[in-house]
Design brief:
By secondary structure, the protein is of the alpha+beta class. The protein is built from 4 helices and 3 strands. It has a domain of about 55 residues. It is about 35% helix and about 10% strand. A hairpin with a 5-residue loop joins β2 and β3. It starts with about 30 loop residues before the first strand and ends with a helix.
């Protein structure tokens, strides 16, 4: 920009947005069918996780008698408890031997 001195703000030509609107929800509530596509699990399997003992069940929101919604972040947090490393048989053996 010609003729600008140090410390002087730059000038722009054209339109500048006053605000930015994010059109996609960052943490959506997903129906079971959408969660099945996101998770790679079947709707039946997801329903079985919801119907578990309340202390280990997949958290959900019952909107009506048949409509269930699950927040994506809550699903991610719930599934993180099942994270494992290595082969399960080796992990169990290491745990049995007191190595873990």
């Amino acid at each position: 920009m010609k003729g600008r001195t140090a410390g002087e703000p730059a000038q722009f030509r054209g339109l500048l947005p006053e605000k930015v609107i994010i059109s996609t929800p960052l943490d959506p509530y997903l129906p079971l069918k959408a969660l099945a596509a996101y998770s790679g699990l079947s709707v039946r399997t997801l329903r079985s996780f919801i119907e578990r003992d309340p202390s280990s069940a997949l958290p959900c929101y019952r909107i009506t008698a048949g409509k269930l919604l699950i927040r994506r972040s809550e699903y991610d947090a719930w599934v993180a408890q099942f994270r494992c490393q290595g082969r399960p048989s080796l992990a169990a053996a290491a745990r049995d031997l007191g190595l873990v």
